[in-house]
Amino acid sequence: MFSGAQVSLYPMSDDFVGIILSAIGALDPYRPNFRIETDDVSTLIVGPPDQLFPAMRDLFVAAAGRGVHCVLAATVSRGCPGEPDDPICTPIADSRHDRPLEERVAAAVAHVEAAPRTGRIVAAQFSLYPLGSGHHMDEIYGCIEFLKKSGVFDRSKNFCTKLRGDAGPVFATLSEAFLRFGAPQGHVALDLKVSANSPTAL
Amino acid sequence: MFSGAQVSLYPMSDDFVGIILSAIGALDPYRPNFRIETDDVSTLIVGPPDQLFPAMRDLFVAAAGRGVHCVLAATVSRGCPGEPDDPICTPIADSRHDRPLEERVAAAVAHVEAAPRTGRIVAAQFSLYPLGSGHHMDEIYGCIEFLKKSGVFDRSKNFCTKLRGDAGPVFATLSEAFLRFGAPQGHVALDLKVSANSPTAL
Which residues of B touch A (CB under 8 A)? Predict the structure, then answer.
């Protein structure tokens, strides 16, 4: 398994460099478990699939805490066949893929309900791509059922799904959608934008 | 065929609202051919697949012209099976999908070479997802061959490909990759970030 994300942070502020640099400290607890590489467009984080969304949540909540309009964009991937297995990308914990779909939907909802609240309201928009063969349409429908029960489902849009709520359950919902549905060893990609402090938030 | 994009513009400036509002005028020439809907996270443009990347190029070059660090992020899609056919989404012009792959690679390179220059240097990062069945690996390899011959190929990264150069040939390369490879009626999604004026550009 190879899992990770290309992550970018966009603070809509003249002080974007300062906001990014001070938010990056939020990744410190994850550094021992991740490989992290930065260039001018994005930061690559490679590591355990279960920790990708918690790491992005902490990074984004730290940046948004400054109060300026801020967006995190990420391309998240697991099981990409072109990438070598990497021992730091541990298998999905508590995968439950052997259990019936209905039970997994209920477990995913329970994980979201148990997610710690951050006090930061965000809007998230994402597209989930089950790639290659081995994914069943039942899994996709199960994921949609889960999203609608997540408590943070906002609406379906063209090409993507929109969530809204506290960053805790929103990132937990994204993580559950990414980890718990589709073939456990299959290739899944997720295209994500998360926004906070928008002056036009509806 | 249904084709379009969810597009967001992120100017890293206290005046992000002013920069976005003044850049949006660049979409005026496309408005007769597009359906456009905006919310707090992104703007949906639905219309002819061939005009999606020219419209995004003009929007981005207008925003980046102010000199501040600016990013455009988009989720681009054609042939999504969940969307109804829409008469404003005309079939791909000059598709050539009946011609041999090598000839199509050469035609795509020629289109990029003929693209008008904008004078604006950008970095672009994208992932191309051929979804569902009907796409052949030969088409993917042909697309990779084209990208390497495009003149704006920078490097392969984990989960994505990076381009760098004038916005004209960069957006033309993205458009060719999106339109000319994979099944002509198949579902293709493209996850894109384009960056200009980055203080850390390499």
Answer: 4-6, 8, 10-14, 16-17, 39-42, 44, 46, 69, 71, 73, 75, 77, 80, 83, 123, 125, 127, 129, 131, 157-160, 162, 189, 191, 193, 195, 198-202
